[in-house]
Specification:
single chain; mainly alpha; 1% strand; globular
C-alpha cells in the first residue's frame, strides 16, 4: 500500500522539474542553466562593491575588489551546493553580497574616513569587522529555528525599511552624478539615469520571464551604450591592469572598530533569518521536504554556510555573503534544481573574477547609469520592509515599536548632530540607522507585553493568517520566504 502511494506521488513530485536536486544533467544543459543563474545574479554580485568603492573613494582598488567579489561568490556557491561536512545547504544556491549590509558598511567606512584614514585603512576595517561579525551567524546557525522569537516580523520589517531608506539617498546622489561631481544634476546625468529606468520598467512588462530576470543587466547595458555615444566612457586605463587577479588574504590588513561591528552583527542576525526563508523557498521549488530533520539539517547547513562564506569573503577582501533568492525564480523557470549545476555556476564566477579587466570595465560605468538601476533596487528594499510589516499584527504595541524605532533611525540619519555630546564610540554606533533602529525594536519587543484585548488590534487577522503564523513558529518549519528576499532577490529579482 505504501509502495503504491509512493508510485502515485512520484510523478507529481517531479512534474515540473526536468532535473531534481540530486540529478546530474549533461554538460550542455548544465552550462546553459548555469549561465542563466549568473545572468540573473551578476548585478547583485558586483553592484555593492561599485557603490562602496564610489562613495568611499576607493578608486584604484575597485577592479581588484570586483574580481574578489566574483571569485568569493563562486567559492561560496560551490560550498553551498556541494556541502562540505556540515557546511552548506546541499541545494542549488548562488552566493553573493547582500544589499542589506550596504548601509552598515558605508557607515563603517565613513567612520574611518572621518578619522583621516586612507582607503587601505577603510578596507582593513571593513573586512576586519566583517570577519568578526560573521561568527555571529555561524553561532546562530546551531539554533536558527529559535531566533525568530527575538527577530520578529516587526523587528525585521523595521530593520529592512531602515536599510532601504538611506540607500535611496545613495542612488539619487549617483543619478545626479555622484558625490562631489562638478556637473551634479546636469541634464545629461538625468538622461542617462532615465534611459536605464525606462528600459528596466519596459522589460519588466515583458511576458518572457527570462527577459524580466535580465532586465537590470539589459538596462545597465543600454545605459552604457548611450554613455559611450555621449563620450562618457574611457577605457584607456584598462591596459595598466594586471592580466590576472590573485586572491591575497587580508591584502589591506586587519583592523577592528566596535562602532562598525555592532550594526554588522545585528545585520548578520537578520541575514540568518532571511537565508532561512530563502532556503525554505528553494526546498519548495525543488520539491524537497520543508519540515522534518532533513529540512532542518539543510537550513542549519545553509545558514552555517552563509557565515563561513562571509568569513572567506572577509579574508579575501570581499563584502559579507548571503544566498541570492532570485535564483529560485531561475530554478522554477528552467526546471533544473540539480545542485551539481552549482559547480558550473561557481566555475563561471571564479573564471570571470580572475580577469580584472571585467572590474575595470564596470568601474567606468557612469554614476547616473548605476544610480538609475539602484534606485529601483533600493526602493524595492524599502517596499519589502513595508510588506514584512504588513504581515504583522499592527496593534498599538507594534505600532509604538515601529514608530519609535523608525523615528530614531531616520532621525539620527537626518540630524546626526543630536548625538555629538555622547562618547565618540557610542555616538558612532548610534549614528547607524540600522543599529539604533534594531536596538530600539528588539528592546521594545522584549519589554512591552503583548496586547490581550482584541479591541486594541487595528487590523484583525483572519483564521488563515493565524494558522500560518502558528506554522511559522513551529520548530520544524522556522520561516517561509520573507518579503525582503522574495521582493528584492537581494534587491533585483523579477
Amino acid at each position: 500500500m505504501t509502495q503504491e502511494a509512493t508510485q502515485q506521488k512520484q510523478p507529481e513530485k517531479n512534474h515540473d522539474l526536468m532535473y531534481g536536486l540530486h540529478d546530474r544533467p549533461g554538460f550542455i544543459p548544465s552550462l546553459f542553466a548555469a549561465f542563466q543563474h549568473v545572468l540573473a545574479s551578476l548585478v547583485g554580485v558586483v553592484t555593492p562593491t561599485l557603490i562602496i568603492g564610489g562613495v568611499l573613494g576607493l578608486g584604484e582598488h575597485i577592479p581588484y575588489l570586483i574580481s574578489m567579489a566574483l571569485i568569493v561568490s563562486g567559492v561560496g556557491t560551490f560550498i553551498q551546493c556541494r556541502r562540505i561536512g556540515p557546511i552548506g545547504a546541499g541545494m542549488l544556491c548562488l552566493q553573493g553580497t547582500s544589499f542589506a549590509f550596504l548601509t552598515a558598511i558605508l557607515s563603517a567606512g565613513m567612520i574611518v574616513k572621518g578619522n583621516g584614514g586612507t582607503p587601505e585603512d577603510i578596507l582593513a576595517t571593513i573586512f576586519g569587522v566583517s570577519f568578526c561579525a560573521a561568527f555571529v551567524e555561524i553561532f546562530l546557525s546551531r539554533f536558527i529555528h529559535r531566533l525568530q522569537r527575538i527577530i520578529t516580523p516587526v523587528v525585521t520589517g523595521t530593520i529592512i525599511l531602515l536599510i532601504g531608506i538611506p540607500l535611496i539617498k545613495v542612488a539619487m546622489t549617483d543619478i545626479g552624478g555622484g558625490f562631489g561631481a562638478q556637473n551634479f544634476g546636469a541634464l545629461d546625468n538625468l538622461l542617462l539615469a532615465a534611459v536605464v529606468l525606462v528600459t528596466v520598467v519596459l522589460l519588466y512588462r515583458s511576458q518572457n520571464p527570462m527577459i524580466r530576470l535580465a532586465a537590470v543587466v539589459i538596462g545597465l547595458t543600454a545605459g552604457m551604450v548611450v554613455a559611450f555615444f555621449m563620450g562618457r566612457l574611457d577605457f584607456s586605463h584598462l591596459s595598466s591592469l594586471p592580466l590576472i587577479s590573485i586572491p591575497v588574504p587580508f591584502k589591506y590588513g586587519f583592523q577592528f572598530d566596535l562602532a562598525a561591528f555592532i550594526p554588522l552583527a545585528i545585520l548578520f542576525c537578520v541575514s540568518a533569518m532571511e537565508t532561512t526563508g530563502d532556503l525554505t523557498a528553494n526546498s519548495t521549488i525543488s520539491r524537497e521536504p520543508v519540515k522534518g530533520p532533513v529540512y532542518l539539517n539543510r537550513i542549519r547547513g545553509g545558514v552555517l554556510g552563509d557565515g563561513v562564506n562571509s568569513l572567506i569573503a572577509a579574508t579575501f577582501n570581499s563584502m559579507p555573503s548571503t544566498t541570492f533568492s532570485q535564483n529560485n525564480g531561475v530554478i522554477a523557470l528552467t526546471g533544473v534544481a540539480s545542485r551539481f549545476v552549482g559547480i558550473y555556476i561557481a566555475a563561471i564566477l571564479v573564471i570571470m573574477g580572475l580577469f580584472p579587466i571585467i572590474g575595470g570595465v564596470l568601474q567606468q560605468m557612469p554614476k547616473p547609469v548605476l544610480g538609475g538601476a539602484t534606485l529601483i533596487m533600493f526602493g524595492t528594499v524599502a517596499v519589502a520592509g513595508i510588506r514584512v510589516l504588513s504581515n504583522a499584527k499592527l496593534d498599538r504595541r507594534n505600532m509604538i515599536i515601529i514608530a519609535i524605532s523608525m523615528g530614531l533611525g531616520i532621525g539620527v540619519a537626518s540630524v546626526p548632530e543630536v548625538l555629538q555630546e555622547l562618547p565618540t564610540t557610542l555616538a558612532n554606533i548610534l549614528r547607524s540607522p540600522v543599529a539604533i533602529g534594531a536596538i530600539s525594536a528588539i528592546t521594545l519587543s522584549l519589554l512591552l507585553p503583548e496586547m490581550k484585548d482584541p479591541t486594541d488590534a487595528i487590523e484583525a487577522q483572519t483564521a488563515d493568517d493565524l494558522a500560518d503564523t502558528s506554522d511559522e513558529n513551529d520548530d520544524n518549519n522556522p520561516l517561509p520566504r520573507t518579503a525582503f528576499k522574495e521582493a528584492t532577490g537581494n534587491s533585483h529579482n523579477s
